[in-house]
Amino acid sequence: MTSIVSRHLFGPGPTNAYPEATEGLARPLLGHLDPAFLAIMDETCEWLRAVWGTAQNRTLPLSATGSAGMEAAFVNTVHPGDVVVVAVNGLFGQRMCEVASRCGAEVVAVQHRWGSPVDPERVVAAHPAPAIVAAVHAETSTGARSDIAALGAAVRDAGDALLLVDAVTSIAGIELLADEWGIDIGYAGTQKCLGVAPGLAPFTISERAFGRRVERPRSWYLDLGLLGGYVGDAGPGPRARTYHHTAPVAMVSSLHAALGRILEEGLDNVWARHAAAGQALQDGLEAMGLELFADAGHRLPELTTVRVPDGVDSADVRRTLLERYDIEIGAGVGEFAASVWRIGLMGPNASPDAVALVLHALGDVLG
Ligand code: PLP
After folding, report:
1. How high is the ipTM of this complex?
2. Which is the closest atom of ligand 1 to the Cα of 198?
């Protein structure tokens, strides 16, 4: 039998789970239509609204990872031939183009330099009347943070396109105000700042976007119209709670426990904790003479990208960190695979102890 290994997950995700989330996984299993479980599901949706910054009724955890959130976002809203403008400043913007095009969209990709934030003016100038404008709030591949409030305002000024946002790495880590910013369709993941294992995709959609949805999307599993019957978001009237699929009850319990913990700490405090840890890490790395990759002023606190110094073998350092310190950090993505490291301090790892540990370990390994 293989032995149990425990690591410090300081990469781009998954992160280590909050202890409450781990305890949530160990709760006694309930039937997925048990009233006791449905109460947990209802409260989970309620608490998800809080972390999304939305009052949108249709806010729920999809039973799959963040990429399924992306699929659900496009498959439910793209009608064949719709123009979808995608702001691309990293891997996940690129993935959006691929998913949107498979859903039949005419994709207009607005390319940005990797490491830079999305430029709202260029994005809205890319097409006079798109159906959807899509962007990634926190680009995990580069460590760049985009201003979704500004993008939302620009999109509203320009017309009536829906705003679709990837919040996988931003939710419960940095400010996220879906309603105030005009996010119509949003998806996230559990394995980053929410501090839960990978496996669920918190999702939210506005009435406006739901009203324009595809009536019979090509995906049965991700059909929001069908899912509403189970999650009980179908609007006023008795809640049907009909079977659609077997909800992953342990994962929902775990998310429920983590959300309870996050809201008890207070969202503002959670954001401040991530901001402080990220700043301390970035200051410490620069003090070691290392160069940060993402543009100054647009760096995510929860995911720091740093250039591998000349002459240093990136993979070798990551291997030594794992073997000597049980620390996982991430490689770069695409053309930056060997020249950038990605260090995540998310959820419970957004702490002074984690900052001190990773700085000490990296300093030791780099000599
Ligand atoms: N979007 C972003 C910004 C991500 O960081 C990720 C995963 O890292 C995804 C989407 C895809 O999520 P998953 O890997 O959970 O399917």
Report:
1. 0.99
2. 15
Q: Which two tokens stand for residue 2?
A: 């293989």
User: Which residue in this structure is represented by tokens 């301390």?
Assistant: 280
Give the pLDDT of residue 302: 98
Indicate if ligand 1 lies below 6 Å from the C-beta of 11: no
Q: Is the CB of 140 under 6 A from ligand 1?
A: yes
Ligand 1 centre to CA of 289 (Å) is 30
What is the value of pTM for the model shown?
A: 0.97
pLDDT of residue 237: 42
Q: CA–CA separation, 226 vs 243, rounded Å?
A: 10
Residue nearest (by alpha carbon) to ligand 1 atom 13: 66
Residues of the chain with pLDDT under 70: 230-240
Q: What is the pLDDT of residues 130-189, one digit of tens each?
A: 999 999 999 999 999 999 999 999 999 999 999 999 999 999 999 999 999 999 999 999
Sign of the CA dihedral with 295 first, then 297, 302, and 307 last? positive
CA of 189 to the centre of ligand 1 (A): 7
Among candidate residues 163, 190, 168, the one with its CA nearest the CA of residue 56 = 163
**Ligand 1 centroid – CA 89 distance (Å):** 14
CB atoms within 10 A of CB 316: 10
What are the tokens at 33? 């239509």
Both tokens assigned to 322: 């794992």
From the list 183, 213, 211, the residue with the least C-alpha distance to 72 is: 213
